[in-house]
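Renewal narrative, Specific Aim 1. Our central claim is that a sequence can be written position by position from structural information alone. The example that follows is taken directly from our test logs and has not been curated for this report. It begins with the structure tokens describing the chain, in the order in which they were read.
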């Protein structure tokens, strides 16, 4: 049984290895199972002594890795096959989402870890957008993995200074540089996240770092706890694909992934505060419609594990995709039986409400109230945002989309 060890914070939770068919196999360690505060890594991986085969274990672990072009580039740099999840985890599994880390057998995580100072000049160089070297592997020896298709990097920020975590030191924030395919994506995501906070959605604190020539988007990690001394500790989390035992390629409903009814059912069955979490998720659906976010899929929603309880995590990756004409204007998850913004009718919203066991009248009341809030706060936010951060064309485009979509609920 040779393979990497899987840790939850500094505790070894189990072993991961490949069977004769090169499929993932995972087994919890006896010591972890005996711990009174142990929790499962994933809903499809309940605490048990028996081994989990590839069908059960692969979705959780493969979803820890980057996707698409970013994955291909990283694989070439670390010199492993882009299809070899196990090898990639060994190379870059030291700082994943939540409290999980993956280290090669015999190399336990440094109990302390260190932070490497990151100057503004270095940050500028790493985020200039003139290189195809991903942020995740910009420093030799760092083992940092964040799921998703966007280029991003975990950092630690204290008293305004930036650091790169090394060893088992946890990060506190994630930074994203400008997108070379879509103009002002940094401003787009920051604006949508700030707008979500202004209308009462639970989102982490975000800001745009302007101390460098190329502004970067910075988001505080919701899967971290900041202590009075300024240090942070990890909180376990998993996205909805992991929680449903699905691979990242199944994140879209059109490709066999979950729909909204599946997501609401997951909260009904497993959330420790199912009713308020389901209401929050309903608000997330409405907000994404109002802002024109077609990329709201199952990997963009997560669960947090706190002790033995499970909650809906704060929202993240809120952007307006409809503001970019080149992107397909079809929603990742259908509202009712419709995924095209321009074809949505009242009957589709009624079908959505009935599918998640919410009275349509309540949904429309909440949607009308949020539409008014989002329309009002978007104008107010844009007035201060554009002079400070730029992105005028994109921000004004988002506001136009909001005004048009808000009128649906008048």
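The sequence written for that structure reads:
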């Amino acid at each position: 049984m040779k393979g990497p060890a899987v840790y939850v914070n500094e505790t070894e939770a189990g072993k991961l290895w490949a069977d004769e068919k090169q499929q993932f196999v995972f087994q919890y360690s006896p010591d972890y199972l005996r711990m009174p505060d142990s929790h499962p890594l994933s809903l499809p991986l309940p605490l048990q002594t028996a081994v989990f085969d590839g069908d059960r274990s692969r979705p959780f672990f493969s979803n820890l890795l980057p996707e698409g072009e970013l994955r291909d580039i990283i694989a070439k740099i670390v010199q492993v096959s882009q299809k070899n999840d196990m090898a990639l985890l060994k190379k870059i599994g030291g700082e994943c989402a939540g409290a999980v880390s993956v280290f090669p057998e015999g190399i336990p995580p440094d109990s302390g870890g260190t932070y490497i100072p990151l100057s503004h000049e270095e940050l500028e160089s790493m985020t200039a957008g003139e290189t195809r070297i991903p942020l995740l592997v910009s420093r030799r020896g760092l083992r940092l993995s964040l799921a998703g298709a966007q280029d991003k990097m975990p950092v630690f920020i204290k008293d305004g200074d930036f650091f790169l975590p090394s060893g088992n030191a946890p990060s506190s924030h994630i930074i994203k540089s400008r997108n070379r395919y879509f103009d002002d994506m940094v401003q787009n995501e920051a604006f949508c996240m700030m707008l979500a906070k202004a209308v009462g959605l639970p989102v982490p604190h975000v800001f745009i770092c302007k101390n460098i020539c190329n502004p970067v988007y910075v988001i505080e990690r919701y899967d971290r706890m900041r202590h009075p001394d300024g240090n942070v500790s990890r909180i376990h989390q998993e996205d909805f694909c992991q929680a449903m035992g699905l691979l990242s390629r199944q994140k879209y409903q059109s490709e066999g992934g979950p729909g909204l009814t599946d997501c609401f059912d997951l909260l009904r069955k497993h959330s420790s505060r199912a009713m308020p979490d389901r209401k929050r998720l309903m608000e997330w659906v409405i907000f994404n419609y109002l802002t024109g976010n077609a990329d709201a899929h199952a990997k963009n929603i997560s669960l947090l594990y706190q002790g033995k309880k499970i909650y809906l995590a704060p929202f993240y990756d809120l952007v307006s995709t409809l503001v970019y004409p080149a992107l397909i204007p079809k929603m990742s998850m259908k509202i009712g039986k419709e995924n095209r913004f321009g074809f949505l009718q009242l009957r589709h919203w009624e079908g959505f409400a009935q599918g998640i066991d919410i009275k349509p009248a309540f949904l429309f009341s909440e949607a009308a109230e949020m539409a008014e809030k989002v329309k009002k706060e978007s104008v107010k936010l844009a007035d201060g945002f554009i002079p400070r951060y730029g992105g005028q064309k994109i921000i004004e485009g988002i506001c136009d989309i909001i005004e048009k979509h808000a009128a649906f609920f008048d």
